Amino acid sequence: MRKFLVVLLVALFWFCNISESQMVRPVVVGEKDPRVGTITGLPKGDGAGGISLATPGSDYLVSVEQDETPSLGGDLDLDGNNILGFGTSIQIPIGYAGSEISTGCKRLIEIPFDCTIQSVSLFADQSGDLVLDIWVDAIANSPPTVADTITAAAKPTLDAADTYQDATLTGWTTSLTAGSILAINVDSAATVTGATLSIWVTNE
After folding, report:
1. Measured CA distances, 16 to 20, 24, 110 (Å)
2. How far is C-alpha 31 from the geometric centre of its chain's CA atoms?
3. Nearest to 119 by CA among 53, 201, 44, 186
4. Per residue in 49-106, pLDDT tens?
5. 3-state SS of the chain: helix, strand, coil percent to 5?
6. CATH second-level architecture of 86-203?
7. Is 22 helix (H, G, I), strand (E, B) or coil?
8. Looking at the chain, which residues constitute the CATH 2.60.120 domain(s)?
9. Helix H segments across the chain?
10. Cα(9)–Cα(160) distance, rounded to whole angstroms?
C-alpha cells in the first residue's frame, strides 16, 4: 500500500506541473496556437515533432485539374447519370473509292448520347466542289429524308476548295438526341473523290 501511495503522489506531482505547451490536444483551424501562431490553413506535421502549415497546391490539391495522373482504382458507376461538359468529334468519311463522289445518301450513323453541335468541318482529298446535307430523325422513322434536314441554308460546302469550317451554324438545329439517326446526303459533287465531314459536339 505504501508503495502504491508513493507512485500515486509522483504521478499527481508530474501532472500538476506539466505545462500547456506539453499537452497533446487537437489544433482547430482559426485558433491561436503558441507553436505556429494563428492556424489559417491546414496544419501538418513537420517531421520533427512539430506542426506547420500545409502549402496549397503542393501539400494538397486545391482543384481537380492539378491531379495530372488521376486514377479511379475501380469502376465508375454513374448511377444512370451522364458526365457533362466533354466534347468529341463525329468523323464521317465519304467516297474514297477512287472515283468522283456521286450524289445521294452516303452514311447512316446512330447518335450515341444527347449532345449539341458546336461546329462542323469538311476536308477533301483535293480541291473541288461538294455540297452536303445532314438529315436527322428518330430511329423509328429511319432512314431520314430531306424533310429532316438540320442545316437550313448553311450546308457544308466546298466551292473550288478542299477545306470548309463553320462554327456559326446559322439556322441549324444543333440539338441531337441519343438514339436518333443521322444521315449524310451528297447534294452535288465535282472532282472530289474523297472527303471527311467532322461534326464537333459537346455533351452538356
Report:
1. 11, 15, 79
2. 39
3. 201
4. 677 777 776 666 667 666 767 777 777 777 877 676 678 999 999 999 889 999 999 9
5. 15, 40, 45
6. Sandwich (2.60)
7. helix
8. 86-203
9. 2-17
10. 102
- Strands, E assignment, 20-174: 32-33, 37-38, 43-45, 51-53, 86-95, 104-110, 115-137, 157-166
Amino acid at 123: F
The predicted-structure confidence for 98-154, as pLDDT tens digits, reads as follows 899 999 999 999 999 899 999 999 999 999 999 999 999 999 999 999 999 999 999
User: Could you give the angle at the alpha carbon of 146 between the alpha carbons of 141 and 151, nearest 5°?
Assistant: 110
DSSP state of 49: S
Rounded CA-CA distance 123/161 in Å is 9
CB atoms within 10 A of CB 162: 16
Backbone dihedral angles phi then psi of residue 89, each to the nearest 5 degrees: -110, 130
Identify whether the C-beta of residue 180 lies closer than 8 Å to the C-beta of residue 139. yes
DSSP-based three-state secondary structure for 79:
coil
What one-letter code names the amino acid at 35?
Answer: R
Task: Mark 4-32 as b/e (b = at least 16 C-beta within 10 Å).
Answer: eeeeeeeeeeeeeeeeeeeeeeeeeeeee
Q: What is the pLDDT of residues 152-176, one digit of tens each?
A: 999 999 999 999 999 999 999 999 9
What is the C-alpha separation between 43 and 45, in angstroms, rounded?
Answer: 7
